[in-house]
Structure to design on (104 residues):
């Protein structure tokens, strides 16, 4: 049997047709997953941004003690959710100076 005959014989087998690509995907996937895991652990060691750093860039941060779940809930509770109007945003193909009026 020549090499071509053996290749033709094995290419008709299901284990060769589906098993070999599966094993290749498993091995390649493990190497890809290793790269993503390295990124995860590489950036997990970073320190959080301090308020002093944010002030340097012009962003004002609230004090952590001032922002609590209860205070944010009180803000949301005061919003009137029964009376609202749906406003349609501009589409890229529409002119910006035209008011958008939806007719149904």
């Amino acid at each position: 049997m020549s090499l071509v005959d053996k290749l033709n014989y094995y290419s008709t087998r299901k284990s060769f047709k589906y098993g070999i690509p599966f094993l290749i995907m498993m091995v390649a996937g493990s190497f890809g997953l290793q790269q993503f895991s390295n990124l995860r652990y590489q950036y997990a060691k970073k320190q959080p941004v301090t308020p002093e750093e944010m002030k340097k860039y012009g962003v004002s941060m609230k004090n952590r003690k001032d922002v609590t779940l209860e205070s944010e809930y009180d803000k949301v509770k005061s919003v009137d959710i029964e009376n609202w109007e749906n406003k349609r945003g501009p589409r890229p193909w529409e002119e910006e100076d035209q008011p958008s009026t939806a007719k149904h």
The mean pLDDT is 84. The chain has two domains: 1-46, 47-77. The two ends are 75 Å apart (CA to CA).
